[in-house]
Amino acid sequence: MMRFQTIGLIVNPFAGQGAAVNINLAQKGLTALGVSKVITGIGVIGADALIGLSFKHEIIPIQEDVSRDQTLELAVKLVNRSLDAVMVVGGDGTLADVAYIFSQFKNSPPLLGIGAGSTNAGELITCTSDQIDHLNPDMLNEIPVPALMAYVGDDLIGVGFNDCVLGLTVVATLDGKLRNVGVAKKFSGQTVPALPASIGLDQTQVERIGPQGRQMIAFGKSVSTVIIGLAESSFIAKAITGGVCLTAFSGLQAGCLVADQPLVQVELNSNDVLALPIIHSSYLSFSEQDRIHVRGVRGGTGLCVDGTPLRLLVTDQEVSFGVCTNAVRSIKIKKEQKRIL
Question: What are the residues whose beta carbons fall under 8 Å from the beta carbon of 89, sequence distance 6 or more?
Fold first, then answer.
């Protein structure tokens, strides 16, 4: 049984259905874990979840503007505290932001992720919002989690635990529905529906560089979407997954998929998918010693890590991706309990 005497708390009030729902999820999670003390930030990022509860607590002073920067600041102030875990209520992007900070420190606390976002598909999700009533400390354990590392030039700008995507649109929740929205508009604070489109130009190149030398994966206008993803054990023996099945079977951690059609779409029905032209794709595995390099994409392409747009690219920028096999620690539900849920 895991013990949660002192726990950190970070709430993303913008994820999923909003602040009120996410604060309620935090309250349910803290109560289920039987914590004694909570350390968190001001207002909706954490302190509001303690209203009406009897936990001992410490409120850390941080900037008052509710934003991604506020989340990162609180993560920095929690990472070196003596904590049994840090509970993060949000989506894949929020958890990736916190893990980005934690991955840069030794002996950082494990993450306990309450999935309240649009997709909640990443390895840092402990349980989703509809499982919160069944959260049980007796059925939790701690595991090391691999991560994808996203660079612009030589600068590490993000750490992902599901995927990194280069595209002109991103998936977001708008009026309670999953929509394709323009990534450039997201950087100006707007959530505006948009049609997915190709990022490839004549000069676009995607290649793997490592001990095996350089190998071109795809180039030119055939590069519509670039997806860097982790190879999960669930892909083993599922041949339809193609090259990623071999990646998982061999024990490698990650691969790069390039397709000639936009793949990250959530507004297609079955007839739309059947009417699509043939999708041609290229795939290559990579190890910790390799990097995937991408250059020459269309200006305005977004670099998205676990669904969060982190950088809007210009055509002459080069981005690269690596993988780290033991980036952070995550608290997961034991397999036998998952079957019950």
Answer: 9, 10, 11, 12, 15, 22, 25, 26, 29, 114, 116
Please say if the pLDDT value at position 114 is more than 90.
Answer: yes
**309 falls in which pLDDT band (50, 70, 90)?**
very high
Alpha helix locations (H) across the chain?
A: 19-33, 68-78, 92-102, 183-187, 243-250, 270-274, 335-340
| CATH H superfamily, domain 6-135 | Probable inorganic polyphosphate/atp-NAD kinase; domain 1 (3.40.50.10330)
- Predicted local confidence at residue 164, as pLDDT: 95
Q: Is 221 helix (H, G, I), strand (E, B) or coil?
A: helix
- According to the model, what pLDDT value does residue 336 have? 53
pLDDT of residue 96: 86
DSSP, res 5: S
> What letter would DSSP give residue 88?
E
CATH H-level superfamily of 151-326: Probable inorganic polyphosphate/atp-NAD kinase; domain 2 (2.60.200.30)
Global pTM reads 0.76
Q: Where in the chain is the domain with CATH 3.40.50.10330?
A: 6-135
Instruction: Quote the DSSP letter at residue 156.
Output: E
Q: DSSP state, 315?
A: T
- Residues of each domain in the chain carrying CATH 2.60.200.30: 151-326
CA distance 304 to 147: 14
Q: What's residue 119's pLDDT? A: 66
Q: What is the pLDDT of residues 204-219, one digit of tens each?
A: 999 999 999 999 999 9
